[in-house]
Design a protein that fits this description.
This protein is an alpha/beta fold. Helix content is 25%, strand content 24%. It has a single domain, classed as Spore Coat Polysaccharide Biosynthesis Protein SpsA, Chain A (Alpha-Beta Complex), CATH 3.90.550.10. The strands form 4 sheets. The protein has a 7-stranded mixed β-sheet with strand order 5-4-1-6-11-8-12, sandwiched between helices. A two-stranded antiparallel sheet has the order 2-3. It has a two-stranded antiparallel ribbon with strand order 7-13.
Length: 229
């Protein structure tokens, strides 16, 4: 299994006052930090090495690792530094230090997928792999559609044909980030390989839960009341 990079450095501006002193992924859901549920799921589903990319309020993550431990995973905290790197720059900062491709996911999303199935479908000879979910505009703006066998992805200006959404996890390798700047959005890498028809994909079957807005935060709270992992 490849290592996991979890992007935890966002400012959580859409959440307002509830996230001014706490990083978004450390907000409590039923008395436990949201990140706990993510890492517990990884711990029970084959992950071993996890890198948390942290920036905003990074000291809070050191407290988290002191208070929570997991049986099978080793957690590494990697700070972005004094200047914002963006999601792409944050991944590039870590993946250049690894000797294998890596899963990349966001700290504000709980994803119910089989990581081994994603791992098995990935071809190292092609570009990055993204996981997609048939959204049809239900949970957020759809930004992916299929042109025959190829996935077409555009984050900022999605086609009217889009009926899938980027699920929030993918696999990347160091060479995917060639000719990129120090600070940039990860979507630029996805769009580049989509344009040359080398962006791989895997279809998720279960919806994700995220805490990026007050509305989605409430939905996540309801989900985890009855969640059994």
């Amino acid at each position: 299994m490849y290592p996991f990079i979890i992007l935890c450095g966002g400012l959580a501006t859409r959440l307002g006052s509830i996230a001014t002193e706490t990083p978004k992924c450390l907000l409590e859901i039923n008395k436990k930090p949201f990140l706990y549920y993510q890492l517990d799921f990884l711990d029970k589903n084959g992950a071993e090495e996890v890198f948390l990319s942290v920036g905003h309020l990074s000291e809070k993550f050191y407290d988290f690792t002191k208070n929570y431990s997991f049986k099978n995973i080793n957690i590494n905290l990697i700070e972005d530094g004094s200047l914002p790197l963006g999601t792409g720059g944050a991944v590039k900062n870590i993946i250049k230090k690894l000797d294998s491709p890596s899963f990349v996911m966001y700290g504000d999303s709980f994803l119910r997928v089989n990581f081994y199935d994603i791992y098995s479908s990935y071809d190292t000879n092609l570009g990055p792999l993204i996981v997609v979910y048939k959204n049809d505009g239900m949970y957020d703006i759809s930004n992916v559609y299929f042109d025959g066998e190829h996935v077409v992805y555009n984050k900022k200006n999605p086609s009217y044909l889009s009926n899938y959404i980027d699920y929030g996890i993918g696999i990347y390798k160091e060479s995917d980030f060639e000719n990129t700047t120090k600070s940039f959005d990860l979507s630029l890498v996805q769009e580049k390989f989509s344009h040359i028809k080398k962006l791989q994909h895997f279809k998720a079957e279960k919806r994700f839960y995220e805490i990026g807005t007050p509305e989605s935060y409430k939905k996540a709270e309801k989900f985890f009341i009855n969640y059994e992992n």
